[in-house]
Amino acid sequence: MFSSVKPVAVVHFSGDLYTRPRNASIPPPAPPPPVPALFIIGDSSVDCGTNDFLGTLARADHLPYGRDFDTHRPTGRFANGRVPVDYLALRLGLPFVPSYLGQSGSVKDMMRGLNYASAGAGIIFSSGSELGQHISFSQQIQQVMDTFQQFILTMGEHAAADHISNSVFYISIGTNDFIHYYLPDVSDVQSKFFAWRFTKFLAQTVKQEMKNLYNANVRRVVMMGLAPIGCAPYYLWQYNSQNGECVQPINNLIMEFNFVMRYTIEELNKELVDANIIFCDAYVGSMDILKNKDQYGFSVSDTACCGLGRYNGWIMCLSPGMACRNATNHLWWDQFHPTSAVNEILAENVWSGLHTKMCYPMNMQEMVARRVRTSDDTINQFSSQA
């Protein structure tokens, strides 16, 4: 009797034995990522472990932080699981981006992207300093420049410029300048700067740093606006909110900042040749979730999943026993940070505007689809003019 079983070939795949019929077609390889790398600058909204290496109170290196992450362990992310850039990295076909301070140091590993974000960091150098060490906005830009120097030394100036210009840079910063500087009235800032002047000062600082990045060949940038922190459990507790109503004066500051930043980004796109900078209004996206929470599957919109006090806004998340059992139906994870369920919705809006339009003049998917001029294009342009 002859066996009816077809002969098989045995191949190794990711360390496991994998069998397939000899005549089976080999699945096509996955398409290359649309961009070579994702680089992240910011604060605790996107920190993925920077502060684990610093002397600071702003740390998420303990459970229940990370309990719903892929590894079910704390990763330094200020959420129960993923932060927005994790979802965007997957959209780009890239691995989760490692912390600059936590990576191995090899240029090969850096070339897929790095995360410089540090919890407590602000646009102003001293914002959040009462929490301890952090890497400020300007210091993160300097770390980016140091990374670029390593690219140039390893790849050569021509290849490094193309790699940088085709990569995406995601910036999420500014909240701590209000939480830890303007609202507590540090150094009597409110009497020296009306809110509008303070906001314009922040925007001009960001504009100058973006020009520095542009001069280093950065062309694709996602600039995130600020979320409605007037709805955060900390301020609901501090202002003794009734029925979970948001603190409108604080939200007014946030809307003003976002308005000025959107205008600033429009100016930059006009001034900088070949720049593709988009502004994504996290306030708009967050308020859409808040107002339509039932449609999104949320049942708790004012109280944090983890914390103590009214709205769980008095004390931050310190131990697993302080956390609710199910974070997926909560908007807020702790005093200031949303749950991963909210992060995913916001990331989808940044990528494609799936739920609501919050990015201008285009979404991230459209920005990535736009071709970036490479150094070869510049050389060819000058050759044709000669």
TrEMBL record:
The keyword Lipid metabolism applies. Coiled coil: none annotated. The keyword Transport does not apply. GO terms for biological process: lipid catabolic process. Keywords: Hydrolase, Lipid degradation, Lipid metabolism. GO terms for molecular function: hydrolase activity, acting on ester bonds. SUPFAM superfamilies: SGNH hydrolase. Belongs to the 'GDSL' lipolytic enzyme family. This is SGNH hydrolase-type esterase domain-containing protein. It comes from Mikania micrantha (bitter vine). The lineage of its organism: Eukaryota, Viridiplantae, Streptophyta, Embryophyta, Tracheophyta.
